[in-house]
Amino acid sequence: MKHAFSLVELSIVLVILGLLTGGILGGQSLIRAAELRAVTTEYNRWVTATRTFQDKYFALPGDMTNAQSFWGVAHATPSVCEVTPSTTTATCNGDGNGQVSYYAVGNSANESFRFWQHLANAGLIEGTYDGVTHGSNVYSATSANVPKSRLGTGHWHISYWGSVTGDAYLFDGQYGNAMVVGGLLANDWPNTSLFKPEELWNIDTKLDDGRPAQGKVLSGGLFANCTTAANSADLNADYRLNQPAVSCFLMSRNNF
Questions:
Q1: To bridge 175 with a disulfide, which of 35, 161, 204, 223 should be the other Cys (CB 3.0-4.6 Å)?
Q2: For the packed helices 7-57 and 111-121, what is the interaxial angle rounded to 10 degrees?
Q3: Do 136 and 208 fall within a single domain?
Q4: Does residue 30 form part of some domain?
């Protein structure tokens, strides 16, 4: 004789399933929140490490003109040194102009990637970075030359942007040496979306002013998706907090 489940038994099963589902979703939210907090921690770590580096070596990492005197020579010819990866602390000199550039004409290239190598060589950050580009473009980033973030596929990058106007992803303004954290894109810098607008607003508020086009911390990404801006010149925009999709990356300008 076959027996069906009683209403009480079915109710117990449904309650258990509900608790499991709630626990999984709650756990995912907690993990995401921890990853977002890590972004703020990581940013502060890079800034502190760089300022400590400046105090000790009187130069910006990547840009310093006497890095080889401290950590060895990746290659004696500057133009060859530009493309010589380092499996040790051996490195290249920068041109000392205060700009952490993708290249420094007449001296050495890949300052943006030597930046992380110099910080690691100085013992100010963890990890090993080979100091060269990894793709067909000078700005191609991978886990071998820039730090990985705890947030998903996120990676950190720094480069000198100077003045930006009319860009499809960045607001108009002076950027100087700008840090970015975003998802990796083949043969490119990390500029794929990593944050929901509300998430980036939260980080921006903690680090800066909570405005996507003003202050030090800015929103990157297609303007209409992440912010209320119509274009790159709309500097009074707000974050589009009701947008549930991941549509922003973080840009922090004029850091050093």
A1: 161
A2: 90
A3: no
A4: no
- Which residue is it, tokens 């000392």? 96
Number of helical H runs and strand E runs in the chain? 6, 4
Enclosing H/E stretch for 252: strand 249-252
Q: Are residues 89 and 167 both part of a single domain?
A: no
| Apex 141 CA angle, 139 and 143, nearest 5 | 160
Final residue in a domain of this structure, among 101, 120, 147 = 147
Q: 96 pairs with which residues across the strands?
A: none
DSSP string across 142-172: -TTTSPBPSSTTEEEEEEEEEEE-S-SSS-S
In the three-class reduction of DSSP (H, G, I as helix; E, B as strand; rest coil), residue 241 is classed as: coil
Position 174 in a domain: yes
Q: Please tell me the total number of residues recorded for the chain in this structure.
A: 256
> Does residue 243 sit in the same domain as residue 157?
yes
C-alpha 202/C-alpha 36 separation (Å) is 9
Residues 17-61: tens digit of each pLDDT: 555 555 554 567 888 899 999 999 999 999 999 999 999 999 999
Classify residue 176 by burial, with Cβ atoms within 10 Å: 0-12, 13-18, 19+: middle
pLDDT tens readout for residues 147-180: 999 998 999 999 999 999 999 999 999 999 999 9
For residue 77, what are the domain limits?
37-147
- Where is 238: in which H helix or E strand? none
Q: Are residues 42 and 137 in the same domain?
A: yes
